[in-house]
Amino acid sequence: MSSGTNRAAESDAVLFYGLAALLVFAPLYWGGNRPLPLLVMELAALALLVGLVWGRARPAQPSALSWPIQGFLIALFLLPLMQLLPAPLTLWADLPGREFYAGALRLAGVDGADFGWRAISLVPSLTEAAWLALLPPLVVFVAASCLSSQQLLALVQVFLGIAVGQALLGLIQYGDGADSVFRFGNTLMSGSASGTYVNRNHLAGLLEMALPVALALLAATVGHGLPRYTGRGRRKRTLRQWLARFSVNRINQATLYGVAALVILLGLVFTRSRAGVSLAMLSILLCTALFSTRLGGRNAYGLMGSFTAVGVGLAGLIGLAPVWSRFTYSDPIEDGRWRIFDATLQAVGEFFPLGSGGGTFEDVLRRFHPADFLGVTINRAHNDYLEWLLEFGLAAGLLIAVWLIFYLRQWTWVWKRGEWAPLRFVQAGAGIALFLMMLHTLVDFNLRIPANAVFTALLAAVFFHRPVEEERHSTRRRRKVGGDSEGEPVTAPAPAHEIPPENQINPFAS
After folding, report:
1. 269, 371, 278, 379: which is closest to 333 by C-alpha?
2. Is 304 exposed, middle or buried (CB count within 10 Å of its CB: 0-12, 13-18, 19+)?
3. What's the pTM value of the predicted model, to 2 decimals?
4. In this predicted model, what pLDDT tens digit does every residue of 268-299 receive, in sequence order?
5. Residue 193 contacts residue 168 (beta carbons within 8 Å)
């Protein structure tokens, strides 16, 4: 028993520190969006996977992934591999969208073009690369789901520290000018903050996910851990009890989270990303609505605290409104984005329902390039949903729909009445962050950036996490109400202070 416990503890430690190292490394070199850093991330994911398999010899924990989510992950992992299955060229040419390319192969006189075999994907090497790029976010999600609640909270704080560091670097870049050495040679984003990313919008993607998490931790810290008061005692709090709310440790924590949220918000503003600032305003609105009535686990500050939180949130929105209209940067791609969408939709119709193959977007869209969109290479759809539909077809649409169902269903579990623990706040913040990323990816390709894909996977693991303590409590409650493990009903306990029958007679009665 002790050897198994030690092995479990060692496995959890390996997973935690391995995940922390991967998260810290992910954005350092252009957000991982280059072959070398992506290769390092893929190797690190494989090492984490080995550690995960080595530690799974212990019994399954109640917080393990549910079977539907496991099925979803397996389907996501196998989808690119399915597109690498070979087919005879005669059959391959009859697949949606392949006839044009089969004719080109015959005209080019490719050896064996009349009877050879080809993978379903148009460019198998690109599909293999797309499959390997899935490993880091998938492994991060699975490994983070196996951590305890305390370790997961610590990992969220690591993520928050990364976001604060990127925001501070962005502020230095903006203040230091276009020739700043802190831009590390990135001349494309000379007028805005970009951190260690190539594109300002990708830094905005990281910061917009971190902002609701920081606000969630701030809301959880303010007033958390206060003594409970019921009945008349609620109206008789002494001065000492009121001052007990403001312990030095709690004030320090709230100050740190408040400063972190402010730095992240400023970093978002100075990215000059329209989508980023817009989603920051939406984040403040959603966090105000969700957390204003749950400060400190329950509303420790009463109705006045709720009004104060709403006032602060509305003041933040009012302050950001002129920033959005006057300070944000107009993206030159914005005017042509609808033409890119239109060309992508034409390609989707051509290759539906099988898709063209993972990673083949740029090569395929050359055939559908808008005639009036000259001098530009379209390497992304600036809408991940359309790009997935083009590359993976109907299967991608089904997976997106299943993800939305999982996401909405999880909110019904996260949003519970009663007092919230800090993890529940973080889960709600992670749910808001995922919603913001789902909106942002309608007009950008943040999920194609390895670092942001890894951060999104971490927040998804936080959002879908089921704490062991709550699982045990719900199991114990079901047994108490419905019966024991063998199906027998549980009888109600006898009253603790029952008066014996002989003492119920008044001896002085006539």
Report:
1. 379
2. exposed
3. 0.84
4. 988 988 888 889 888 988 988 888 777 655 55
5. no
